[in-house]
Design a protein that fits this description.
This protein is an alpha+beta fold. It contains 14 helices and ten strands. Among the domains are: 22-120, Tetratricopeptide repeat domain (Serine Threonine Protein Phosphatase 5, Tetratricopeptide repeat, Alpha Horseshoe); 279-412, Galactose-binding domain-like (Jelly Rolls, Sandwich), CATH 2.60.120.260. The strands form two sheets. The protein has a five-stranded antiparallel sheet. It has a five-stranded antiparallel sheet with strand order 2-3-10-5-8, with no helix packed on it.
Length: 418
């Protein structure tokens, strides 16, 4: 049925009004959004006037008053409008809590923080800000609770968060019990921090938690901790860490045994340059390489290529935990090619801390076939950690040529089967 001209005119008028209203709303939204992006007061106020129900514009105006005008009262009013329009945005509550803190309104600040945490329980940004504000308020328990949220949910913030936790409450037992979550990455971050603070006893407690967790641990954390323990002469703890890291860090093949206390003595494994495996320092005077073309009994040896005008040692060494007052049997094999210079390289075994030498071989030279070096010695009453080195004798003198070493072995003489 055809519409009458009057009805058509009425329908056209209604459609026009709808379109105009839509265009008006869209234009208002567009202008308000453009005004809100400006950083001056006039444009922010225009945005609020155009859309007074928009909580985000109210909050931006509050931030302007807070940071640009230093007007705490005006910022509080704007923030209150924002949270009343949208109480489910945790960031608005944090901004309000900041303003209350500057204003000196402790109870309203705590109320705002409670709202922020309630609507953003797993947000690490909110938790971090809330923890900082609670810390200023002196509420350490709430601050630590929020820092735990950060530690549980943000893989990048634990180092900074743990530092603040320790500053708030330097109680290792309390932090491990209530704050630090059972996550290997968090524990190792805490371990690194405590090492930097030289908190030896606390670091040992953290390592106990790491070991009990049975989660994978990056080898670098093990090496850093052991390097610290050796520097503090904590040999027993270093030995325990190396043993426990066998399954945690893929170090099972690198464990000493009663048959040989030297780790990787035949160089069949990759050299780790950490822990109780071989440690090395490359230099322009000496090059070190695993040589598969030369070996005594396995399938490769360590090649040391000397070309130095002044040298103390070859830059390869290993730390070996031992028992004090105990007899040990050492043996190793070498072959040399064109060693030039007075004296030559020598195997040396010393107490790492006192420097006492327990074994020093003859010069390792003039042998084109594999030759054994051996000796027996007894450690002193205080010796717990030996260092095996390839020394240059006389020290700081020129040397050139090639040296291969292999099948390095150290055992207790009273061990059955040794």
């Amino acid at each position: 049925m055809a519409l009458s001209p009057g009805r058509r005119l009425l329908l056209l008028g209604a459609s026009t009004l709808v379109v105009l209203a839509y265009v008006g709303f869209a234009l208002t939204d567009y202008l308000a959004a453009r005004f809100s992006e400006k950083t001056d007061l006039t444009n922010l106020q225009r945005a609020v006037r155009l859309q007074p129900w928009n909580a985000e514009y109210r909050n931006r105006l509050g931030r302007y008053f807070f940071f640009q005008e230093n007007s705490t009262d005006d910022s509080v009013r704007s923030y209150l409008s924002a949270v009343s329009l949208n109480p489910h945005q945790a960031r608005y509550w944090i901004d309000l809590a900041n303003a209350y803190q500057v204003q000196g309104s402790a109870q309203p600040e705590e109320d705002a923080l409670e709202h922020a945490v309630r609507v953003g329980p797993t947000s690490t940004t909110i938790a971090w800000d809330a923890a900082s504000l609670y810390s200023v308020l002196g509420d350490t328990e709430e601050a630590l609770r929020e820092f735990r949220t950060v530690l549980e949910h943000d893989p990048y913030l634990p180092p900074a968060a743990l530092q603040l936790c320790w500053r708030i409450k330097p109680d290792i037992d309390g932090l491990l019990r209530d704050v630090v979550p059972p996550i290997a990455a968090v524990y190792t971050s805490f371990l690194d921090f405590l090492i930097s603070r030289k908190e030896t006893e606390s670091a040992a407690k953290v390592w106990t938690q790491v070991a009990a967790l049975h989660q994978p641990v990056e080898q670098r954390h093990v090496f850093d901790y052991m390097r610290y323990l050796v520097s503090r002469q904590e040999v027993d703890q270093a030995r325990l860490v190396w043993e426990q890291a066998a399954n945690l860090s893929g170090l099972a093949p690198y464990q000493p045994s009663p048959e040989n206390l030297v780790v990787n003595g035949d160089f069949r494994l990759s050299v780790l340059n950490g822990g109780f495996d071989w440690l090395y320092q490359q230099s322009s005077d000496v090059s070190l390489a695993l040589d598969p073309t030369q070996s005594h009994s396995g399938y490769r040896s360590l090649l040391i290529n000397f070309d130095a005008r002044s040298l103390d040692d070859a830059g390869i060494q290993q730390l070996i935990p031992v028992q004090p007052g105990t007899e040990y049997d050492f043996s190793a094999y070498f072959k040399a090619e064109d060693i030039q210079g007075a004296g030559g390289p020598r195997f040396a075994i010393q107490d790492l801390y006192s420097g006492q030498t327990y074994f020093s071989s003859d010069d390792l030279k003039d042998s084109t076939s594999w030759k054994q070096v051996s000796g027996i010695f007894t450690t002193g009453p205080g010796t717990k950690l030996l260092i095996f080195r390839v020394q240059r004798v006389p020290a700081r003198s020129p040397i050139r040529g090639k040296l291969w070493i292999d099948d390095i072995r150290l055992v207790r003489t009273n061990y059955e089967g040794s």
